[in-house]
Each structure stands twice: as C-alpha cells, then as structure tokens.
Amino acid sequence: MTCFQDYWAAVVAAWPGIWLADLLRYLVVAGGLVVALACAPAAWRERRTVRIRQVAGGQPLREFGHSMLTVLVFSLVGASVLLGYHAGVMKIYLVPREFGWPWLLASFFVMVILHDAWFYWTHRLMHHRRLFRWVHRTHHQSLAPTPWAAYSFAPAEAFVQAIFLPLFLLLVPAHQFVVFLWMAHMIVRNVAGHAGIELVPRAWLAGWWGRWLTTTLHHELHHAHGHANYGLYFVWWDRWCGTEHPGYQDRLWALAGRLYQARAARRGCESKALASKEDQTPRIAISPHTLTFSLRARQLP
Ligand SMILES: [Zn+2]
Ligand SMILES: [Zn+2]
C-alpha cells in the first residue's frame, strides 16, 4: 500500500510536467505551422491549396478550445502510463542495449504501423451513426480544418486516441526515446493533415509518398465529404477496404501536375532571359495511374 502511495505521489507530482509537454507539443507544431504558412509567399500557398470548403468564422478559436480539453485528457492518460511504468506493467525501457539497437529502430516503425491500424478502425467505428454524434462530430465541425484542429476532439474521442499508447506498452517494449519520437511524428503528421495547404514536396507527391502515405489533400477530402479517407499515416487501409475517396488519386495527380507545371513555367521564364530564341517550352508527361512523372524540359545552361 505504501508502495502504491509512493507511485501515486510521484505521478501526481509529474502530472503538471506531462500536461505542459502535451500542451507545448501542440502549440509549437500547430502554432509554428500557422505562422509559417502566414509568412509563406501567397503564390506558393495558392498553387498548393487543397481547400474544398471555406474556413468558418471563429473556427480556429473553437478548434483551439476543444484541443485544450484534449491536452487535458492526453495528460491524464500520460500520467496513467507513468503510473503503469512505476508499477512495472508498462514496458518502457531506458537502456537501449536492453533489447538491442535493431529492435530500438524497428519498434518505431512497429508503433507507427500499429497506431495507423488503430486509428483507421476506431475512426471508421466513430463514423457509425450511433457513435458519430457523441464521439466524432466535434472533430467534423471543421469542414475545412486548420492546423488548430489537430486535437479538436470531444473528450471521448480524445480518450480513444490516447489509449493506444498504454495498450501498446502493455504488450510491446519500447524505449523512451522511441515513444518520444512516435509522439513527435504523430503531432507533425496530424497537424500537416489539417493544414489545407499541401506540404508534401512535389517530387514525393508524384512518387513514393503519394503511393503509400497520406497527404493533406487526403484528410481535406475526409473533412469535406466524410465517409472516405479514414487513414492517418498510410493509404493502404483505405485502399484495401475500398474506403478511399473515388476522386482522390485524380485530384492528387492534378495537384502534382499543377506543381510541375508551375515549376516548368518558372524555369521557362528564367531560360527566356538566358537563352533567347530557342523553344524553351517544357513538356511534362504524367501517368495518373502510377503517379510517376517525367519532366522533359530543356536544361538550363
Ligand atoms: Zn472522421
Ligand atoms: Zn481531421
């Protein structure tokens, strides 16, 4: 009993720090992206916008308010993880050689892949008509989400999102740095998915990223239309289960093509100044099905 009281006292003492870490993670990444996008050139934003609907008045403030409640839920679940660690039931370890370096590296990918599956299936469940109203409607109040929507959940949804970590650590050993890295990856991908402006580099969109990983466009379509594109990090669950938005690949292809055209046009302007009378018009071949692109433009001298 005394031992439990000691654990409990340690958790209560640590909770403010856990809450602050959860808060800062959200503020730094979401706030940082909002500032970066505001400072980005208007032309860059315009050609990368994937907005389907309009951001409503007062929406960012509402998203921020709900996110503060989520930070509280996350911190309470985080405190329970700490309690579980002290009790010896959470398999967090501190010394890398305990399970070896190969597992330390592999465990990050295991964690991301399992979290993606957890998110996809719980997300689909939350869209069930009996659950949606109580659990997931708060998040979908944003038809055109902003980065502040990353944590804009009802408390029940925040709990479902948070509970993955203790469930994982009950079963799978993970180094504390891997847990930190997974959290950092999660908030970055989450915030980017709600940016309304595609952040994935042009060449990646047209290549491996577009084939395997979700984009801002992917989640924008989910908010605009619901009932499609439930995935978090990878597109494979949506493809395997037939829930990918039917227009997603065409839109992704059009976006990537637009970005390549814009680059070609910029290069064309530069080359006109340098090369005068030769035909500098770039030609772009795009395959919508494979999403592979080849740019056949004359190279600048
Ligand atoms: Zn949803
Ligand atoms: Zn969302």
What is the secondary structure topology, with strand pairs?
Elements: H1 2-39, H2 42-48, H3 59-87, E1 92-93, H4 101-126, H5 129-140, H6 155-162, H7 164-171, E2 174-175, H8 176-193, H9 202-205, H10 208-212, H11 216-225, H12 236-240, H13 248-275, E3 283-287, E4 292-296
Parallel strand pairs: 1-2
Antiparallel strand pairs: 3-4
Helix pairs in contact: 1-3, 1-8, 3-6, 4-8
The structure holds zinc ion (ZN) (2 copies).
Report on the structure:
The chain has 301 residues and is mainly alpha-helical. It has a domain at 2-199. The chain is 66% helix and 5% strand. The chain is built from 13 helices and four strands. The protein has helices at 2-39, 42-48, 59-87, 101-126, 129-140, 155-162, 164-171, 176-193, 202-205, 208-212, 216-225, 236-240, 248-275; strands at 92-93, 174-175, 283-287, 292-296. The strands form two sheets. Strands 1-2 form a two-stranded parallel ribbon. Strands 3-4 form a two-stranded antiparallel sheet. Strand 3 (283-287) and strand 4 form a beta hairpin. It is globular, with a radius of gyration of 22 Å. Mean pLDDT is 89; it is low at 280-285 and 288-301. The chain binds zinc ion (2 copies). One zinc ion binds next to helix 5. The site of one zinc ion (ZN) has 6 residues, from helix 11.
